[in-house]
What does this fold into?
Amino acid sequence: MSNFDQIVKLIADDLSAVEAKLTEQTASEYSFVDMAVQHVVEGGGKRLRPILVVLSAKVCGYDEGRDAHTLAAVVELIHVASLVHDDVLDEAAIRRGRETLQTKWGNKVAVLVGDYLHARVLSMLVSRRSDDPAMAVLADTTQAMCEGEVIHAYKSGDFDISEAEYLKIISFKTGKLIAASCTLGAHLGNPTDTKQIEALTVYGQQIGTAFQIVDDVLDFTEDPDKLGKNAFGDLREGKLTFPIIYARTVCNDDEKQLLEKVLNPNTDETEAITFVESLFQRYGVEAHCLEVAQDYADRAKAALTGLPETPARIALEQLADYVVSRES
Ligand code: FPP
Ligand code: MG
It folds into this structure.
């Protein structure tokens, strides 16, 4: 059994309760709305963010009295809503092995289902205590995710985007919600220990960046069936991601010019893929990106050193490595 499967087993009861919350809290009495919503809510995925809420709560001494499952469902729903909208932006056809909403029912349905999920998130948060920090944390997080995606969209045609600018974008669009999952879990455990909350927030931010770098690599290297989405999606769109930004900085001038040309969506797709693959081989791009991702994972693990050495902490350390070694 892989480490990831063992972690899922360790908190299996919590995760079943989260699944039940997800279905129950997003149900609509209108059958088409319900069908479209459940198509994405029950569309699988690793449930990484709920896992982080639960483990962060446990490592901080969670007393079961506060509702971890609602918060875990809330972060997953923010994530699902952001993917539904991201797939509209990216014109993606497949997600989690299923047709995307806009492929099945069009952009209008996809945008509205994303909005519906946000409305459910607000309602679930309102039903919690009024002194709950979750509202503020998630309002800031959602804002940063939107900012990250807007800057990314704005910069999408910019071949000269720097590595630092790109890292900032991904720390917003992906890192913030993963960090918030850990922050909120820590609040559920020991809300007064700010050191624990800060440590878990740093942990989440670091694995979030590692997660997105690996996501960028998998787009070039992984089998689409395992990935549950089409491969080379970023390249097809002419999107500059971490591997391309690195390749651009290490290749020679002729290759750089050709790289800029093949990133133009009008270039023949096979030509673009063949060239980029040859560049990746020549400069060891995959290995370099995975090393950078591992550095982030190591920093994440280092942030946990002050926390008690419980099974939950070991699981969080293993999750940091899983984020880098995963194949989907
Ligand atoms: C996937 O990135 C997308 C994200 C991690 C964030 C999406 C955020 C928004 C659409 C902003 C709006 C968000 C909210 C909460 C209102 P990707 O395209 O690199 O990954 P992919 O290959 O999985 O599509
Ligand atoms: Mg996308």
